[in-house]
Specification:
The protein has 1048 residues and is of the alpha/beta class. Helix content is 62%, strand content 7%. This is NB-ARC domain-containing protein.
Length: 1048
């Protein structure tokens, strides 16, 4: 007799546990869930008559007193007779639950915290797989979370696999190791869910079908593109996950039977935290050996025992020895196991090795004794795992392990005939960081390799021989030029060479043609060259000095002409130059031609893998583009976004020239993208566009949801490539096309953004985030100012900050002067009808820049124009009047006209003391300026008076390591030395030094200044030892090189 599915009881106990019970096939089933930890249970409710259940469905309030729930297992029980009634029983039940929860609260908190973190990472990774922006760091973070210590491992695994079959992700070969890692992580979380829990809810047939279809699609991609993608590790993991999902119901039955027959297993699972697991584990293994054949549990046996064994237990003194015994025992019979079991066993061995749960001597023994035998196994999946373990061991920190693994790897390479395993054999080793290495060692290791290469290359096919030819030429010479038409992939080939041969270099630096100065100044500071006005010149001298002994690869990208390299090229065995250019003026160049038809076809098959296109259509499209890489890529975008067949697309570009076909294709692609977004992008340089800037502007204009859609469109249409640091790059030809369509509608939005966010001041040197933002925006602001006329006060202000950024970060006075001329030209054309306050601000900005450039006459000219306007239109106590008075005082102080300087400073002081609060920073600033003035006039009494007023304010309002505090301490030190009060002078100098050594780079010029001041002080005190110490530190910076950097 069957009852309708409407007979359902739904309860919530203790505001935490959700219970749903229903009648099915003459049985009562229950499903319970912990709403906090997300843990679930399902099973039969025993002892409840069906008629009683139906009667209860209409009395749910009363029914809640007739059931109990075990907070640990979530099992639901029917309370017969008086057990279900009475307040006494209910209180006892609540007390029991409260007691258990109280004892395990720390455990529950840990489960919830880990679950939250794991789920957040899984969501980010899943979304990034869809958008081709996978963050390696997030994958590594999730890999470190123990699934045993998560409340809902199943939820994490399913979220991680949500977009696992996204075509966009599988078209990026450089992510193959990340895909394998994601599959491996998902497999481990599923193992914990299916095997570790007492009772699990089997996946519905619909869920199974959905997941299996995803995996079948992935397997199809891997098998179809095997010669392009070394995805064998992923393939093995996917097959294991499929088997887990297929056998989820069998696993549940199998596990329930074990629980009934083996109390030791339950003890291990529940009480592992306080129990040495080794004796119980041995019993478990023996039990499995006796029952595995009956229960078809061989595969699950390995999964289970290794998952249990991997749990942390600090009290197990012999755990390492027992682990090694277990691994060795299983390795001896590995060739008799199925490949799934063998794969999990080898995976367990590799994890134990990485986590140092087994000794290095044992690892070496396995290398010499077992792995040579395992490699003879006929199953390619097992050989694939062996080869991957050897990849890890070839990067091991122990030289004996490294050498033995290398020899075995080479031996396998000679003998192996299976093409699938040969793919893995061709991959570079994985470098392992020793888990317990000291932080110092880690930092030193990072310093051994220097690079600014941030972005990944786009899909590279058919360029393997070119990359090998580049390496051959750079071995024989120190320069190699790659030339070719735009869109051929010159930059991608250069960056792929840098990836493939990274181990040959200790420094890899990319210099873009539109930011040569900025990129080389950045490299110079990395090499220890002092950052000042002569940084670039010192770098040139350093290159020619032949003092660089490290191997260096300099990639000059997209040079327009040969002369751009002249100042930086030197003949050296240690410095290699890789040039990309459209110019044909280079003598020994490698001409990058079109892709071959075969390689073009391979590319199209991979990109259009989800389209059921026949081979004739793919060949026709490959021939139409004749190996033009950009055309191939954008044709794929056009086909996908317009839902064309290849034949329909070919009709679209029929009878067009290559240039016309490119434009037509781009038109069909960008027509699907928000027009204003493309206009915004057109104002930026093609490389290193900061995503955060684009996001801020578009979210403000369109909202978060629309921003997400726009971003996905740009990525999916291959308009932008994104690197691991969220910087975008756009192909030059695509950028030129976008710029040709610009109608100027987004100009004001970008001006507003730069006006708010591109502000240069002294604080940027200690605010790392702000400094990085200025550096990121600098080339793009340059491009914007270069192309546009100055039409507003905001644009003038942006120019003002741009000049300061160029002078502070690049020391390029010529470029600064060119931009200043635009500002002056705008100022000279100002009419009397414009806003006078804005006009005065323009004059003030220009005057400030001229004073920075030490052109005091021009500075005075514009300051006086500003002063004349403000004295006419502003109230006597207006803060803008105080500002120009202060600037005039500084100007005349620099001109050593101390009378005029004092006059203007006093006017400023008079206003500020009346309108500002007693602890206002502007008051501290004018007090400091007055102190400097009187110090220069040798009026030390007044100087000290104002310095102390400044110091009193700054010590109350500034952070202890603020640079302004260091500055006033230095000024006080100088003053006290002039007064021959050497004790106080030393006290203030040391305070200044303490701040600057913590906030400044080792070669910062301000450090040189304080070292020089302290040397002079100790010279006056006749303390020769300390004089020598600080004078040599001063010289070390002044000479432009750090002592250690001489051996770079």
């Amino acid at each position: 007799m069957k009852f309708a599915s409407t007979n359902i009881i739904e309860l919530v106990l203790d505001k935490r546990y959700s219970i749903k019970m229903y009648c099915f096939n003459n049985t009562i089933k229950a499903y319970s869930k912990d709403l906090q930890s997300l843990k679930e249970w399902s099973g039969l409710v025993l002892g409840l008559p069906i008629n009683m259940f139906i009667w209860m469905t209409k009395r749910s309030a009363w029914a809640s007193s007739r059931f109990s729930l075990n907070p640990t297992t979530l099992e639901v029980k029917y309370l017969e007779g008086l057990k279900g009634g009475g307040a006494c029983v209910l209180r006892k039940k609540n007390a029991t639950i409260s007691s258990i929860l109280s004892n395990d609260q720390s455990i529950l908190n840990e489960l919830r915290e880990n679950q939250k973190k794991a789920l957040e990472l899984a969501e980010n990774i899943s979304q990034s797989m869809k958008e081709m922006t996978i963050e390696h760091s997030e994958v590594l973070s999730l890999e470190k979370i123990n699934p045993h210590k998560c409340a809902g491992p199943y939820v994490v695994a399913m979220k991680l696999l949500e977009n696992f079959d996204a075509t966009e992700c599988w078209t990026q070969p450089e992510y193959f190791e990340v895909r394998a890692a994601v599959a491996s992580i998902a497999r481990k979380f599923l193992l914990v869910y299916f095997i570790k829990n007492q009772n699990v809810v089997s996946m519905t047939e619909l869920d199974k079908k959905d997941k299996i279809s995803k995996f079948d699609k992935v397997i199809k991609i891997i098998n179809r593109n095997e010669k392009l993608l070394p995805e064998l590790c992923t393939l093995v993991e996917v097959e294991i996950i499929k088997k887990l999902i297929y056998e989820a119901h069998d696993t549940q039955k199998w596990w329930q039977k074990i629980l009934k027959e083996s109390k030791e297993v339950l003890t291990v699972v529940v009480g592992l935290r306080n129990l040495d697991p080794v004796p119980a584990l041995m019993k478990v293994v023996d039990y499995f050996d006796r029952t595995s054949n009956k229960l078809r549990g061989g595969f699950h046996k390995y999964a289970f025992q290794f998952e249990i064994f991997e749990k942390e237990n600090a009290e197990s003194t012999n755990l390492q020895e027992q682990t090694q015994c277990l691994i060795e025992k299983e390795l001896e019979k590995i060739n008799q196991l199925g490949w799934e079991e063998a794969h999990i066993l080898l995976d367990f061995f590799e994890n134990c090795m990485k986590k140092e749960k087994i000794s290095e001597a044992f690892v070496l023994n396995v290398l010499k004794t077992h792995l040579p035998n395992i490699k003879q196994n006929k199953a390619w999946q097992i050989k694939e795992k062996v080869v991957n373990i050897l990849r890890s061991l070839r990067g091991h920190w122990n030289s004996d392990i490294f050498q033995t693994a290398n020899k075995l790897h080479e031996a396998i390479k000679l003998d192996e005939k299976d093409s699938r395993v040969e793919i893995i054999l061709g991959l570079s080793p994985k470098i392992l960081d020793k888990p317990r290495e000291s932080l110092v060692g880690i930092f030193q290791q990072k310093e051994d390799f220097i690079t600014n290469k941030e972005y990944s290359t786009d899909l590279i096919v058919g360029r393997e021989e070119i990359i090998q030819e580049i390496h051959k030429r750079l071995q024989n010479n120190n320069i190699c030029e790659i030339t070719g038409m735009g869109g051929m992939g010159k930059t991608s080939v250069a960056l792929k060479y840098a990836d493939d041969f990274k181990k040959c270099y200790q420094i890899i630096w990319v210099i873009k043609s539109d930011s040569i100065t900025l990129d080389l100044v950045s490299l110079a500071t990395q090499l220890g060259i002092c950052k000042d006005n002569d940084t670039l010149e010192n770098f040139k001298i350093f290159l020619k000095s032949q003092k660089i002994v490290k191997s260096v690869l300099l990639i000059f990208d997209n040079l327009e002409e040969k002369t751009q390299l002249n100042d930086y090229y030197v003949t050296s065995e240690n410095i290699k130059y890789l040039i990309t250019s459209r110019s044909t003026d280079w003598e020994e160049r490698i001409e990058l031609g079109p892709l071959s038809y075969t390689k073009s076809e391979d590319y199209l098959r991979l990109r259009l893998v989800e389209h059921d296109e026949n081979e004739e259509s793919i060949k026709a499209l490959a021939q139409r583009w004749n190996g033009f890489a950009l055309g191939l890529r954008q044709s794929v975008a056009s086909i996908k976004k317009n839902k064309f067949s290849i034949q329909e697309y070919l009709e679209l570009i029929q009878d067009l020239t290559e240039e016309e076909a490119t434009a037509k294709t781009l038109e069909s692609v960008v027509s699907k993208i928000n027009e204003e977004t493309l206009e915004l992008l057109s104002y930026f340089q093609p490389q290193d566009i900061p995503e955060d800037s684009i996001k801020t502007i578009l979210v403000e204009k369109f909202g978060v949801k629309e921003w997400g859609r726009i971003r996905s469109q740009l990525i999916g249409c291959y308009i932008v490539n994104i690197n691991s640091k969220r910087k975008w790059s756009i192909h030059q030809i695509i950028m030129e096309f976008i710029r040709s369509k610009n109608k100027g509608s987004m100009k004001d939005s970008l001006i507003h953004y730069y006006y708010k966010n591109f502000k240069v001041d002294r604080k940027m040197h200690i605010e790392k985030i702000k400094l990085e933002q200025i550096k990121e925006l600098l080339p793009h602001v340059k491009n914007f100012v270069k192309e546009k006329k100055l039409d507003s006060i905001k644009e003038i202000y942006i120019c003002y900050n741009l000049i300061h950024a160029i002078l502070e970060l690049e020391f390029d006075f010529e470029e600064a002067k060119q931009i200043l001329e635009k500002m002056v030209d705008k100022a000279n054309k100002i009419s009397g009808d414009e806003n006078k306050e804005d006009i005065s601000s323009i004059f003030e900005y220009i005057g400030e820049i001229f004073i920075y450039l030490a052109n005091y006459e021009r500075s005075e000219e514009f300051y006086l124009k500003c002063l004349n306007i403000r004295e006419q239109i502003l109230q006597p106590l207006h803060p803008d009047l105080a500002s120009i008075y202060n600037n005039m005082g500084a100007l005349y102080s620099n001109k050593e006209d101390y009378t005029k300087s004092e006059e203007f400073y006093l006017k400023c002081l008079n206003i500020n003391e009346q309108i500002l609060q007693p602890l206002h920073p502007d008051l501290a600033s004018i007090y400091n300026n007055m102190g400097n003035l009187y110090s220069d006039k040798a009026d030390y009494t007044k100087s000290e008076e104002f310095y102390l007023k400044c110091l009193n304010i700054q010590e109350q309002i500034l952070q202890p390591l603020h640079p302004d505090l260091a500055s006033i301490y230095n000024d006080m030190g100088v003053l006290c030395r002039k007064k021959a009060d050497y004790t106080k002078s030393e006290e203030f100098y040391l305070k200044c030094l303490n701040i600057q050594e913590q906030i400044l780079q080792p070669l910062h010029p301000d450090l040189a200044s304080i070292y020089n001041n302290m040397a002079n002080l100790y010279g006056d005190k006749l303390d020769h030892a300390k004089w020598k110490k600080f004078y040599f530190k001063f010289l070390e910076i002044q000479q432009g090189f750090h002592v250690r950097s001489i051996q770079i």
